[in-house]
Amino acid sequence: MARVLLTGFHPFGGSVVNPSWQAVSLVAADPPPGLTVSTARLSCAFGTALEELRAAVDRADPEVVVCVGEAGGRPGVTVERVAINVNDARIPDEAGQQPLDGPVVEGGPVAYFATLPIKACVAAVRAAGIPASVSQTAGTFVCNHVFYGLAHLIATERPALRGGFVHVPYAPEQVVDRPEPSLPAATVAEALRAIVTTAVSTETDVRSAEGAIH
Amino acid sequence: MARVLLTGFHPFGGSVVNPSWQAVSLVAADPPPGLTVSTARLSCAFGTALEELRAAVDRADPEVVVCVGEAGGRPGVTVERVAINVNDARIPDEAGQQPLDGPVVEGGPVAYFATLPIKACVAAVRAAGIPASVSQTAGTFVCNHVFYGLAHLIATERPALRGGFVHVPYAPEQVVDRPEPSLPAATVAEALRAIVTTAVSTETDVRSAEGAIH
Amino acid sequence: MARVLLTGFHPFGGSVVNPSWQAVSLVAADPPPGLTVSTARLSCAFGTALEELRAAVDRADPEVVVCVGEAGGRPGVTVERVAINVNDARIPDEAGQQPLDGPVVEGGPVAYFATLPIKACVAAVRAAGIPASVSQTAGTFVCNHVFYGLAHLIATERPALRGGFVHVPYAPEQVVDRPEPSLPAATVAEALRAIVTTAVSTETDVRSAEGAIH
Amino acid sequence: MARVLLTGFHPFGGSVVNPSWQAVSLVAADPPPGLTVSTARLSCAFGTALEELRAAVDRADPEVVVCVGEAGGRPGVTVERVAINVNDARIPDEAGQQPLDGPVVEGGPVAYFATLPIKACVAAVRAAGIPASVSQTAGTFVCNHVFYGLAHLIATERPALRGGFVHVPYAPEQVVDRPEPSLPAATVAEALRAIVTTAVSTETDVRSAEGAIH
């Protein structure tokens, strides 16, 4: 049984739910065949989230980690390509911190690529009938912070671990009166099942055009 | 048992599914308590669609008719406010017709309002946790054509009938590799159940701000 | 010299400028050859705006009236096709009024079509290198209110007058820190010159596909 | 007189103009006070564009280089934060090449940050009344390729040089019949003047919240 760690986030920005945690919980309750799925719910707070992530990795000793966060406004599930070494918060995090332009890791490289087969993951989600794409930016808030921290942990301490970040749309109940795209938690959970199954079983990523013109 | 007629459309524009028919079928297979739900699948063709609608109304003798169509690009379920007396086709319909600026009904009024309680319907969909809003335009293609034809039928021949039009988003499987909003058929069906239940049971629409600045 | 009346609006909703008035002023300062251009700046208030419009029409005795309003979020200049008999305000107007679902004119028809050659106007704007399209809805706020009131005035009292409504994007200076489309006042003024020149000189509108699928 | 090199691109993807070159040409024809502005028009082709850029840098020996490209769909001027070491082409370039997932520079770091004061540049554009923001991704096509190549040149051979990349919206004439945001070349040129003036005169970037949630 391959061991997978999935993380989601606490609600933030006034929402009562966070679709990342909704979906992660559904996957844990009904994991894909052959996988042992652990979960952790991270605080939406710089620093704290990374401590929680490290503790969860130590506890679960996974082969694959997929961190999941909300990307309100995106219509499909997006698999992130790259984490950058910047904390630049447009709004305060849930601890009231608002870092501007400092690094995630002092002295760390400018960026890390995901060590998941991101294109194979996108293809698997689409094969399940769910919109998906590669994203070229995870932003500069707590999601990117967690993604960079995970990648740095892998690069410096756990070379056998593979990991990445997936952004998911709003849940429908978050936007009942706003013109924003959304997908139900059950749909997003199905996408995550496809992603973790693919991540565990794929050695070499597929070659396909998933870039962005700009 | 109140009698409701729901209509959807055949696929068009190269799609293999039409989310309107997917959702309507699900409602018919599992109708809301107290309602008898008939369905009709209309051609996406000027003229023909209205003949099919009239035949379905004659057959079902409903108290409420809700016609449903795809509005690719809209993120939520929209209840249409007004049908206008124009056929102005940006693309050919499935019969190859492309009328430009002629009327739906020669000599008919410029427009009809829906005779559904549109704001109560929107409120009911939102209460089910699904994004919804009032739309101020059903376009100028076959959807508006059907909506206007239905309203004209009600105005001129069936004053006791109430009817309107609901636009629904793409289904996820239609847009797996495109950045377009979507909702699964099961979610849209739940929205339609809320709409028909509300339409049958609501005499006077609620007053709420669902207008558009422009 | 053909007489044209152009109207714009006072700023509303917290903006310090209204791009409709900016552009209208530029046209009046440098009118197209052969046209006498009068202007009026309307209040963004239900009722009052229509009184001001009527007074301006009486004063200018124009052959063509084009009312212009801001449509924040639209990327191009849009020529409106239809005005509907509804006041349904999402936000209060500048007088603090927020009508919900009452008519513009008690007992008036559900809608009026513009009496401008809307497709020829769109073609003329595009020929000037500026994005333009036909719009199927002017909303349900003061813009639609003015458009309907103008159309009703034409239909009931001034059959020789022709008139319509044009929505214009934000001015760049309104959205310097928001991801919203905009066009400079000079560009919008050029579009309005093309529209009024076309409206005055075109008897029969062109036939072209400018409809909307939904 | 400080020496600035501005680059734009040849048209691509079927367009007859490229707004980056339009704007760069206007700046060269009417440069800001105190600056000597050189220009180069780069091919929209992997590899070739970087050779042309290197030649232009050698020729102009500038203190600041700002490469400019089209970002169709973006409503404002965006100053790029980071270039990544990936060529991943969604469409072929003008030479027919379509690299998938190879690096820009074999063995180069995952990413480089711009060495311009990006936030001061954004603030200067806004102060000129023009929409602007920091962008967290320059894509994975030729624009990112040029930006990465420039940053690599600076890092490895020209440490005194400062450089970055600016993405600009469509020109209005490119999208006359499409619902896409645009800004006229004169407006974009004014933004570029603000950027190069700021880049030359600003030692330390300002601290301001220009990050992205995702």
Automatic annotation (TrEMBL), chains A, B, C, D:
CDD domains for this protein: Peptidase_C15 (cd00501)
GO CC terms of this entry: cytosol
Catalytic reaction annotation: Release of an N-terminal pyroglutamyl group from a polypeptide, the second amino acid generally not being Pro
Gene Ontology molecular-function annotations: pyroglutamyl-peptidase activity
Main EC class the enzyme belongs to: hydrolase
Compartments it resides in: Cytoplasm
Protein family (similarity comment): Belongs to the peptidase C15 family.
Subunit details: Homotetramer.
Protein name (Swiss-Prot/TrEMBL): Pyrrolidone-carboxylate peptidase
The organism of origin for this protein: Streptomyces botrytidirepellens
Upper taxonomic lineage: Bacteria, Bacillati, Actinomycetota, Actinomycetes, Kitasatosporales
Gene name as annotated: pcp
